[in-house]
Amino acid sequence: MSVKSRVTLKNGSRINYDYLVIAAGAVKDYAAIPGFREYGYSVCDDYQAPRMWEAIQNFKGGNIVIGAAKTRWDEKSTDIKLDAPCEGPIGEIMFMLDFYLREHDLREISTITVFTPGKIFFDDVGPKIHKKIEPLIVKKDIKVVYEKVICRIEMKSVHFEDGTELPSDLTLVIPPYTGPDVIKESGIGDQYGFIRTDKSMRHPVYKNIFVVGDCNANSMPKLGHIATIQADVAASSFIKEITGEGEVMEFKPEVFCIMNRGGSEATLILSDTLFGGKVDITLNGPLAHIMKWGFDVYSYYTRGKLPPEFIQNSLEKMLKEFK
Amino acid sequence: MSVKSRVTLKNGSRINYDYLVIAAGAVKDYAAIPGFREYGYSVCDDYQAPRMWEAIQNFKGGNIVIGAAKTRWDEKSTDIKLDAPCEGPIGEIMFMLDFYLREHDLREISTITVFTPGKIFFDDVGPKIHKKIEPLIVKKDIKVVYEKVICRIEMKSVHFEDGTELPSDLTLVIPPYTGPDVIKESGIGDQYGFIRTDKSMRHPVYKNIFVVGDCNANSMPKLGHIATIQADVAASSFIKEITGEGEVMEFKPEVFCIMNRGGSEATLILSDTLFGGKVDITLNGPLAHIMKWGFDVYSYYTRGKLPPEFIQNSLEKMLKEFK
Q1: Which helix (H) or strand (E) holds A287?
Q2: Which of A80, A114, B66, B302 has a CA positioned 20 to 30 A from the CA of residue B86?
């Protein structure tokens, strides 16, 4: 990628462009945690997830430590700086692992400790949601420790920047996020490989470049739902640019996800407090689990498509009833 | 099919059996309504549905008449005798058509009249559900007429056995149900081609024959959900027969369906009052619509499979919260 309106593909071929949409995602920087390769496990891709599943099946009781690493953001390009850009997977791992251990009569001979790099666990949602989720965590006998920035994993322990450590027989982490190398090298992003845009998803200098999804410096938290909102904004912005018609959609981000919690349990989360809004709600129970399944099934069979517009309309209507 | 423990296939080949499971369904007897072929439309198969859709698209306003024909049941083989074995599709047609006409600015120049052969519309569910659905029908300006047994469709009218008629520019009906010819000819069913079984889904005389689904004389209403319950009972009964192990599941039928009502609206119905129970509930709104979509998507992509057991467990848990 260069500022010459040209992209170079891996096979060496070059393509000139009039407009460029970058949706290159973020990279999970496993190598940033010494000892991860030997003693750490993770969940967010199809190499790490089966590797973790094998480790869980071999686990016969002991101390489990779960948490997200701290991600660094560029002061100038990222406005909202979450220490962990999304702790949803941490929530899913801890609850589902608790469920699994109980099913396998291992829970009583195991501890689950969750560390978070920030002062607040699930920092991307607001106090009403925290109040709903905290009792669930306590009920499952999961201990949460705060302001712990992971710096090293050893065979029997996890070490933090403040010099403390936790004993651990099974360490499950979300590594720090970084932007893709291609962006770092392109000169159009920040030091970490993320790209700042204006609110219409356009690069402030190279106006013919649009950036959506995790590689956008202000996609925060790093969440599929926010990527799709950005895509809609970018599309409206692009249509206005080339046709002169329509209006650029206002970018109104919100956190929306469903966290599976083992068995039939799940928690739907909808919140915009991180962006100054007042919506901060959960829906607990098997219904949320069914909804996540419906989404997964559709996405699986259509190879990654989002549910059709009429279903998104239903969802919006339903969520409005909550609000 | 014969009582000689042998079935004959359409291609003439014969197969002897030790055990036979009959799941031949019911037949919608369109020919039983004179004038249907010329002036009537219906919805329950992939020939009738597109034909009806074309008629709806050509409709430019006028009188619409919708209803189910009366089905005859054998006194001795069918215990619960519903005049219309399932009016769910009638509910879907009338609400979705109302929605469609409003979208196309045709509602004000059209009337929708629904006839039912019995004294009660949606006779397979109880008074609590009727109370919830009636206001929706009134709100949509849909008129319901009772004890009207259709006997003829003409170009501009629908005629009933009591000598009355309704003016109609578009007539949409569910025809009477009958059993398949193969059962009528086999000698193991009743005069209408339905087969009575005991509560373990076994033929009372030919104990090596199991019957599940619409062709079972006591599958009432004729509903996919009840067919799957019967299949579970038949399977447990068959397992006990050949292994001597396990127990025959108790047959506990219930009416469970989701009726789309146009746009994001839908109504989930769960009721067992027809079978002497006390459950009689609805869930209205976009959530029910999302649930039906999830079911449809899964069934479509898996070519007819039911959602996996863990999702059925979630559903059961959710429905228990209702009850």
Answers
A1: helix A286-301
A2: B302
A261 has a chain B CB within 8 A of its CB: no
Based on the number of CB atoms within 10 Å of its own CB, is A126 exposed (0-12), middle (13-18) or buried (19 or more)? buried
Evaluate whether ipTM surpasses 0.85: no
By the CB < 8 Å criterion, does A291 face chain B?
yes
Tell me which architecture the domain covering B6-25+179-243 has in CATH.
Answer: 3-Layer(bba) Sandwich (3.50)
Q: Are A30 and A140 in contact (CB under 8 A)?
A: no
Same fold, B6-25+179-243 and B28-178: yes
Q: What is the pLDDT of residues B32-84, one digit of tens each?
A: 999 999 999 999 899 999 999 999 999 999 999 999 999 999 999 999 999 99
- Long-range CB contact pairs, A306-313, < 8 A, 24+: A306/A228, A307/B293, A310/B263, A310/B264, A311/B289, A311/B290, A311/B293, A313/B263, A313/B264, A313/B286
CA distance B267 to chain A (A): 13
**Closest residue on chain A to B301 (Cα):** A301
Give the model confidence (pLDDT) of A201-233 as tens digits. 999 999 999 999 999 999 999 999 999 999 999
Q: Does B312 touch chain A (CB under 8 A)?
A: no
Q: Which of B286, B297, B317 lies at the smallest CB-CB distance from A294?
A: B297
Asked if A100 reaches chain B (Cβ–Cβ under 8 Å), the answer is no
Tokens representing A22 are 């970058």
Domain spanning B28-178: CATH superfamily: FAD/NAD(P)-binding domain (3.50.50.60)
Predicted confidence (pLDDT) per residue in B265-306, tens digit? 999 999 999 999 999 999 998 989 999 999 999 999 999 899
Q: Which of residues 7-26 of B touch A (CB under 8 A)?
A: none
At residue B146, does pLDDT exceed 90?
Answer: yes
Q: Which CATH architecture has domain A6-25+195-243?
A: 3-Layer(bba) Sandwich (3.50)
- Domain ranges, ordered by start, for chain B: 6-25+179-243, 28-178, 255-322
Digit-coded pLDDT (tens) for A266-289 = 999 999 999 999 999 999 989 899
A139 touches chain B (CB under 8 A): no
Residue located via tokens 């058509």: B97
**Cα distance from A314 to chain B (closest Cα, Å)?**
5
Report percent pLDDT > 70 for chain A.
99
On whether any CB of chain A is under 8 Å from the CB of B304, the answer is no
Size of interface A-B (CB pairs under 8 A): 73
